[in-house]
Amino acid sequence: MEVRSGERVVLSARAEGGLFRYLPQADRVSQVRAFALDEVGLLGYPSDPVPFRERYSFYQGKRRLPQDPVGAEAFLRRAVEAFPDDAEALGELAFALYLQGRHAEAKPLYERALALLDSPDIRVRYGRLLYHMGRYAEAEESYRRVLAADPGNLDARWGLAEVVLALGRAKEAELLARQVLSLKPNYPLARFTLAKALLEAGKKEEARRLLEEELRRNPDPEVRGLLERLSGE
């Protein structure tokens, strides 16, 4: 295998079997060629060069999320500078800003990313941003668009449950949260959402049990806070 950037060979390696893994070394446009070897190791004709983008900054930024959004931001800004039309890099940069609470900065980046690539992952994260900005109708529309194309998307189903609960539709939120848990019992915070919906219906004991189980699985401060408030009543 040979990787070139322009006319310069940046990697030459022998690969056995059907898998060859190459981690990006820089932000650049490169090409890869495969050379056949016969039984005595003589070099055969190369394949046609296949161009690809090496996205080093994107790779470094993405691997830091969600634990280090500030560190990830610096890499992802370089990734977007290198490839301004990279929807994934724009989406990850928006996510890094969202995790820092910089929602107003994240929103136009998500919208640019969606204009380039309307993927479920980007749209679900955009929906979560809209939810935290209090733009519930827009968040609902975003989640429903994902579910229309992929009814099995649990991230969109849970996000929609949170949105409709915020809009005062507790029964619908309860149904959505139960659907998520029926398909993935360990889905993070689904019990928390279900518990909040049940509290709206006055079902305190079931809500308490759900919160206690969620806290055992996921020591989230919001879960702990709601459980403490409920225990103090």
Number of strands: 6
Mass-distribution shape: elongated
- Gyration radius (Cα, Å) is 23 Å
Helical run tally: 11
Order of SSEs: EEEEEEHHHHHHHHHHH
Q: Strand order of the main beta sheet, please?
A: 2-1-3-6
Mean pLDDT: 94
- Bin the strand percentage: 5-15%
Helix share bin: 55-70%
Would you give an account of this structure?
- By secondary structure, this protein is an alpha+beta fold.
- It contains 11 helices and 6 strands.
- Strands 2-1-3-6 form a 4-stranded antiparallel sheet. Strands 4-5 form a two-stranded antiparallel ribbon.
- β1 (2-5) and β2 form a beta hairpin.
- α7 (154-166) packs antiparallel against α8 (170-183) and α9 runs antiparallel to α10.
- The longest helix has 14 residues, at 69-82.
- It is elongated and about 80 Å long.
- 32% of the residues are buried.
Write the layout of secondary structure elements.
Blueprint (H helix, E strand, L loop, with lengths): L1 E4 L2 E5 L14 E7 L1 E3 L5 E4 L3 E6 H9 L4 H14 L4 H13 L3 H14 L3 H13 L3 H14 L4 H13 L3 H14 L6 H11 L3 H14 L3 H11 L2
Antiparallel strand pairs: 1-2, 1-3, 3-6, 4-5
Which structural traits does this protein have?
alpha+beta, 233 residues
Task: Give a brief rundown of this model.
The chain is α+β, with helices and mostly antiparallel strands.
